[in-house]
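Reproducibility note. Readers wishing to regenerate the assembly model reported in the main text can use the exact inputs given here. Chain order matters: entities are listed in the order in which they were concatenated for prediction.
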Amino acid sequence: MPAANLIGLKEGQGFKTAMKVLDKGRIHIAAVAVGVAQRILRDALAYALDRKQFGQPICEFQLVQAMLADSQAEIYAAECMVIDAARRRDEGRNVSTEASCSKMFATEMCGRVADRAVQILGGSGYLSEFGIERFYRDVRLFRLYEGTTQIQQIIIARNMVRDARG
Ligand SMILES: Cc1cc2nc3c(=O)[nH]c(=O)nc-3n(C[C@H](O)[C@H](O)[C@H](O)COP(=O)(O)OP(=O)(O)OC[C@H]3O[C@@H](n4cnc5c(N)ncnc54)[C@H](O)[C@@H]3O)c2cc1C
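Running the prediction on these inputs yields the following structure tokens for the assembly.
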């Protein structure tokens, strides 16, 4: 194989280069998770505005509001992480920790948002015709590919230990 085909162009650099590609992919998956979570929450809010129980829309019930608010706050947190990690990467900095933190938090967050959406829709959240149960199944993948949550934990903690040792 010609030397020009070497990943990283220098022997011994291939693994490091491949890992950097994964950093970009992890920020990407985190951004996708944020976008899907926003869509799920939008659908859940629309349902809560429309659905009436005990003579009022369920969005007036404080326990439903708590689920809406928790999802909104977590989506905002993940969005901030994605923007920060992407900005650091654009500056040419090493974003191994930030990419893994963003991927882990955003994908776990998306799972919680999907779970709350099923809860807000009640029985309808379980039925395919309302669309939320599909999201609930689909977003499960985010926590698996481009490195499972456990792999992100390992990367983050290893970086912490390495940096602390200097
Ligand atoms: C729909 C879909 C699309 C995919 N697309 C791609 C793709 O485009 N490109 C690609 O390269 N791959 C892709 N994958 C593969 C995906 O990245 C892997 O499934 C994922 O990395 C997990 O690997 P695994 O399935 O071999 O599970 P395993 O590695 O067997 O993991 C099983 C469990 O063990 C845990 N585990 C494994 N190793 C450790 C460890 N060292 N310490 C602690 N816990 C550990 C995992 O976190 C998990 O909980 C895709 C998978 C799916 C389902």
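We highlight two features of this model. DSSP finds five helices and two strands in the chain. Residues 14-50 form the longest helix (37 residues).
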